[in-house]
Amino acid sequence: MTRVLIVDDHPIVREGVTTVLEHERDIDVVGAAGTIDDGLRLAAKLHPDVVLLDLRLPDSSSFDGVASFIHEGRSIVVFTAYDTDDDVFRAIRGGARGYLLKGSPAAEIAQAIRQVHAGESYLSPRIAAKLVKDVAEPRGRTGLLSPRERGVLRLVAAGLSNRQIGETLSIAERTVKFHVTAIFNKLGADNRAQAVALAAERGLV
Question: Which domains occur in the chain, in start order?
Fold first, then answer.
């Protein structure tokens, strides 16, 4: 069972997401808060696996919440109405493993929570599409990543698993894992979402 804490200053959002997730047998919303401070207090008491976190809260600047919960060892899925590049890059650089847009269907919210709890990353399809466009239209130098690594990264940005990437490129899954690890090392990234965001931001592919 994945334990989830919702931190959002709009009661209707908290109630709506809680209601939606009640239908997921493997997800349990253990609490909800309207501020960072209340969220951190609840997190210390309830020990959620994943925090569904709005970026815009009344008692913090845009990204204080991400840093605060990451410091406490929580896995973060940003849940916001904002899809600007700066917001995405800063949240992911700050340690968020998921970036989900408000208005996303129930299945997508549940999928994001499951993937982040499993140690993977998740980007809302609209966000991923923007990043794919960025990495497909390089703005700067490309020498840091090899052509094969750039190809793998584009497929990572599109949300494909290592197995799917291997099938698409006709290479072994372990070879894909090698390339993904090399990409992480070269970019200084900790996860797939962060690697895509850093590459797009730096114009490296």
Answer: 2-123 (3.40.50.2300), 128-202 (1.10.10.10)
